[in-house]
Amino acid sequence: xxxxxxxxxxxxxxxxxxxxxxxxxxxxxxxxxxxxxxxxxxxxxxxxxxxxxxxxxxxxxxxxxxxxxxxxxxxxxxxxxxxxxxxxxxxxxxxxxxxxxxxxxxxxxxxxxxxxxx
Length: 118
Prior knowledge:
The chain is mainly beta. It is built from no helices and eleven strands. Strands 2, 4, 5, 6, 9, 10 and 11 form a seven-stranded mixed sheet that branches. Strands 1-3-8-7 form a four-stranded antiparallel sheet, with no helix packed on it. It is globular, with a radius of gyration of 13 Å.
């Protein structure tokens, strides 16, 4: 059974940085696309960034470009999201996802809360 566990969230001030991690267990995900999503209260879940199997290709939502960097370490079955210049509107639960097949991600973590205060 695949398990994704996020960590690294917390309460920070606007302009600060945070590094989120997603550790996978139960299966080697090095052959799978992975991604970060976020969901704020009352809003729909939205993609933040994604990364291909090797880590050589990444993509970002418009709001994340230039501020967030997604990376992965396949040897550790781990994905990271480095977030800088955080804004209050970045406050949300951040979730990692893996194995994009059939038009959807098949594995999801429980999420880690990021709260950015002004």
